[in-house]
Structure prediction request, 470 residues.
Amino acid sequence: MSIRTRFAPSPTGYLHIGGARTALYNWAWTRRLGGTFVLRIEDTDRERSTAESEAAVLGGLSWLGIDWDEGPFRQSERGALYAEAIERLLASDRAYRCVCTPAEIEARRAATVATGAKWTYDRRCAAAAYGPECGPHAVRLRVPTDGKLGFDDAVFGPSGQEAREIGDMVIRRTDGSPLYHLAVVVDDVAMGITHVIRGADHLNNTPFQLALYRALDAKPPHFAHVPLIVGSDGRKLSKRRDPVAVQHFRDAGYLPEAMCNWLVRLGWSHGDQEIFSMQEIRTLFDLDAVQRASGQADPGKLEWLNQHYIKERPRDRLAHEVAPLLAAAGTPVDPDNPAFGALLDLLRERSKTLVEMAERARFFAVPDDALVHDADAVRKHWKPATRPALEDLAGELARVATWDAAGIEAAFHAVLARHAGLALGKLAQPVRIAVTGSAASPGIFETLVVIGRDRTCARIARALALLPAA
RNA sequence: GCUCCCAUCGUCUAGCGGUCUAGGACGUGGCCCUCUCAAGGCCAAGACACGGGUUCGAUUCCCGUUGGGAGCACCA
Prediction:
């Protein structure tokens, strides 16, 4: 039998990293086994479900490199299916109409809980056999009162609960709308889902869903519950305290490859391997090695991974990803300019994110006379005493035969030789500030090569003009 | 409160009874390299939650305790 899996997010306006990881696990596992991956939008909550909201979730998946084979299906468009299933359950007496009002139930529930007992619906309407004409009513599933609703979870092993712990749950509201569990099970049956891989928060819901499968005369799928991701304080991931939207990470300059690598390793491992390409994820991921304990998302590890992927990114690709960020900052640059590409090569090992890279590349994109010099750096390195050497260097650079690192280095050393006691650092720093505006940059010779002779000379001239007098 | 789940360095994890004076990675500290900043190399500190069993022998198996988490809706 061929494998069919699904990812079923609710369109909340963004793709949550927990959901993203669940999707990634589903995707990787399905791809490895050559199965079919279905996408289903659980948008029965019409309030929050908008087209933009759905697009954000789909966009997040696509950006991560997660593709699907069928869908997206929307639960909002499948109401007839749920209604039909409920009617069938009613007709076969596997479900019954319940006329208890929420207020009545709450009163009885409170009374029961007050005695310290566990509350499940007291089945007041179970034997009444109300017909359709009974007035406003909900529909409840007859859940077995004995035996165990058990299953063998691929991650957690033998799991389940005593059936009597569950009680007769509502599957259709008084207003006629189906409840989540009913819709999920009906859909999973209709879509022929063979393996459900989802968050461990559903571990406790599974027994009830099992009862639903049984009532529907359907064979339940295999289940694999993956541990939750918790915040850096070890508690539940909070939208307030933790960055949780995939979109946020994209905007912050993280690469999808780094995100996937980060997420796949959070709760899963393959020996001591840390780096996993998308290709490796889809060939190596397996449910056996999924952790049972929930894990904390470590932003530091993500940064490290991101830098790793930045370091091995093809130059052109990087250029076309960083250029828009520069343009957005008001300093456009031609992504195909070879010098810009060369600069990015120098910046790779100094940048943890694309955003940071763009900031560091800014001096290249800005016009010579608009370069802002860092005040602290200027105070520290632009001393009146550096003027003679700087003037000397300006002249020397103008005479460099071939504008490459070796030629520029030779020019620096020629100048150093004429100024006794002057160390390279003492000359490099003022020049660095003149050319990049900052006291930190890639190697000075390489930087000058990239910025070009004309712009180097223009910037040094401007620095000379700004240099404090003796 | 009830039900279920979980528990190795700060974090992610390896370990599936002896190979463990517990390995790797991120992070942290130090050193080297060095024109700045990085990157890189080397070194270091750092964990089996606790208590009982089982066993010749437990990080590994069992039971408690403690500590976390999830679920208990006419939410999804």
